[in-house]
Amino acid sequence: MNYSTLKKSVALSLVALTGVASLAVAQDAPATSSAVKVFGGRGQYRTWSIGVHGGVLMPVVAIGGSNDFNKWDANLGYGLNIRKQLGHSFGLELNGTRGKLSGNNEGISNPAVKDFETQLQYAVDLRGVVNVGSIDFLRRENSVGFFVTAGAGYMAYAPKITLANGSVIDWKGKAVGPADDRHDAKDYVKGFYIPVGAGVKFKVSERVNFNLGYTMNFVDADNLDGVYAKGQTKDKFSYGYAGLEFSLGSSAKPTLEWTNPLATMYDELKDPTLRQEVEALKNRVSAVEKSVEDLKKDSDGDGVADQFDKCPGTPAGTAVDGSGCPLPKPAPVETPTSNVTGFEKIGFDFNSSVLKTESYPTLDKLSSVLRENGGKVTVNGYASSEGTAAYNLKLSKDRANSVKTYLVNSGVNASQVATKGYGEANPIASNDTEEGRIQNRRVETARN
Predict the structure, then answer these.
(1) Does the pTM of the predicted model rise above 0.85?
(2) Which of 109, 123, 242, 392 could be bridged to 423 by S-S, CB 3.0 to 4.6 A?
(3) Burial class of residue 80 (count of CB atoms within 10 Å of its CB; 0-12, 13-18, 19+)
(4) Which residue ranges does the record assign to the OmpA-like domain (predicted)?
(5) So what's the pLDDT on residue 182?
């Protein structure tokens, strides 16, 4: 194919592609991104696309390097691609290309091989596509982007060479050496290659992109042009192309690769619904904070919050119990003739852990014994059977702790007093009568 025919073919291809793009612009309604959320996932976008491309195949690459022929030709190439966009800046693309490569040794005296022509049956590769920047990155919608690609592929090709004497050797099912030594592949030579490229894309519409790109393909062989002229070197070819890419999926969704994540975040922060939710959350937090402050409030400074203080307004410095009420003052030491031993049972009112005044003589005697003689005691708390077992267990512990608090405040060392709660276990009277239940609401003390 000469240059004039090549130019006509490429021009016709681009005219056809442009016509398809214009039709898509006229018929496609713009997608909305108002429902898109920053962390909404890929499901809220269109991520699949399919494209067609056409351009020029050449047996050289832009970075240079040696070639097996003195001159090269530009030939028409074409193909298809399918892309899955995995993120705003990265996607995977399956690409296929067909065409022809050719070159000659014109200008070299007495060349062994005059020219070659290689039919590229297919070159299929999987490549990663990275969007490296956009001219409109700071605007709401991007419309021009740059990309780089790299991957790995598999190709099938059939070289044909013309020798100096005019004879032609076609690798496609023909002899390629003395003694009719045929190539391993009966029809096409097959091998691997690595594509590396870059390009720029333009957003024609919500559905259509116009792409311009250039790919250098490094072949894992030295027979792409039908000769092994350079020994250990590898052949290579390049493909400059233009194409159209069509986004697939629902028109109600925006295309992931063109969505500006900064604009998406801005829209979400400005969403009235979100603002209302944030305000409601702030109000709930304020209410919780106020409740916490109320729980911590202690107007009389006795260490018991107002909500649990049964004796508000206690004078400063007054020793209080767990309910905020003043602790009773120790009674005078009883005379030796007293019958109180300090180990009598201590009773409590229904659902209460507050000490009765009638228990003070017993507690004062017990305090005196512990302070004068030393030793240790265990304070065992009990409850009647009203209420749940768990609540009664807690109540019995509270009753035992009330006794310990009284003893410690009267001068007994805290290490001398141990407490245990048994709940409604070990009743000393029947819980079926009120008289029995009154006896079971008790604390018993025992020497260790």
Answers:
(1) no
(2) 392
(3) middle
(4) 335-448
(5) 44
